[in-house]
């Protein structure tokens, strides 16, 4: 069983331990496999990364956090950790399962022009910041968290900014990465023996394959 500690916005561990289905719930619960003793030896890695980001871009609360698989312009996926504060979206480089290091400064939530998701529970999300370099990823662990993620973004945009969040639901859509326009296609029917999601990129088309047994309509 995994062992979990509550973590506040400053990255401090609370005394209470909880058990949940993801390494962070509502952006405040850090999880790691329990070791031989009661101390969560992996928690300090995450705390250090969060504190570093907080020094770069001060924030009060972490509202959402999760592991993701990020799609890059080379057509490859890399494991990242994403977390959302009241003002910004941050990425952490996941060095293995439980080691983290800060990446670039966070992106302002108000700069998100459009969020595109599919009609299925595949966890795919595309954030358009208007710079022709969209943030393309899917939630890789703990089930689909798209609704929770979009809900957090929409609430913060509506609370602090003058515009509402534009959300598009489509299984085929255009996006930009590395300054180039591409078409994303969700593939619902494929080899049943494949149990891991993956992308296939060819020229201007990217196909996102998801295990058929997991691909149910909402």
From TrEMBL:
GO terms for molecular function: cytoskeletal motor activity. Residues 8-212 form the TH1 domain. Coiled coil: none annotated. GO terms for cellular component: myosin complex. InterPro entries: Myosin_TH1 (IPR010926). PROSITE patterns: TH1 (PS51757). This is TH1 domain-containing protein.
């Amino acid at each position: 069983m995994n062992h979990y500690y509550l973590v506040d916005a400053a990255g401090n561990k609370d005394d209470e331990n909880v058990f949940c289905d993801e390494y962070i719930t509502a952006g405040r619960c850090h999880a790691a496999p329990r070791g031989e003793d009661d101390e969560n030896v992996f928690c300090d890695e995450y705390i250090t990364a969060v504190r570093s980001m907080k020094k770069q871009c001060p924030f009060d609360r972490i509202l959402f956090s999760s592991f993701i698989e990020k799609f890059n312009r080379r057509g490859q996926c890399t494991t990242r950790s994403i977390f959302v504060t009241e003002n910004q979206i941050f990425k952490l480089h996941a060095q293995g399962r439980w080691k983290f290091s800060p990446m670039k400064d966070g992106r302002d939530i108000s700069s998100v022009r459009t969020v595109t998701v599919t009609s299925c529970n595949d966890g795919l999300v595309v954030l358009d910041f208007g710079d022709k370099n969209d943030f393309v990823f899917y939630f890789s662990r703990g089930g689909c968290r798209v609704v929770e993620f979009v809900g957090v973004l929409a609430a913060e945009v509506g609370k602090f900014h003058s515009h509402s969040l534009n959300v598009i639901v489509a299984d085929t859509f255009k996006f930009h990465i590395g300054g180039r326009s591409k078409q994303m296609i969700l593939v619902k029917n494929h080899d049943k023996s494949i149990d891991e999601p993956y992308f296939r990129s060819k020229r201007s088309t990217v196909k996102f394959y998801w295990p058929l047994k997991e691909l149910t309509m909402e």
